[in-house]
Amino acid sequence: MAGLDLFQVVGFGLVAALILVVLRQHRPEVALGLSLAVGAIIFLFLAGRLSSVIGVLGQVARRSQVSLAYLGTVLRVIGVAYLTEFGAQVCRDAGEGAVAAKVELAGKVAILLLAAPVVVAVLDLILRLLA
Hints:
Low-confidence stretches: none
Distance between the termini: 46 Å
Oligomer: single chain
Helix content: over 70%
């Protein structure tokens, strides 16, 4: 992401935050919807830039002869982490800290399940090296 893009995202976020502060006092239900919309807009703005990062990671994986299955797993783990964080923040914005904690727990369990095959492969490699 270029510096100008970052300034645009930060500026948009700051303007939205100021509007949300005022709106939350008078219409909290509308503020929650606007907060979701702002988050979605920022995510969509960034999603286009993520494809170049994924492409670079794929090139590095091919050059280092790492299985693309591992790269896919890493990308899924990152996706789950971002999605979980976004969901938990929305819950916190709605004043539901307990629900946010459960969303985070679900994300951690999902990450553990996704990462299990990679952990097993690493442990298998270590055992083969030690044998």
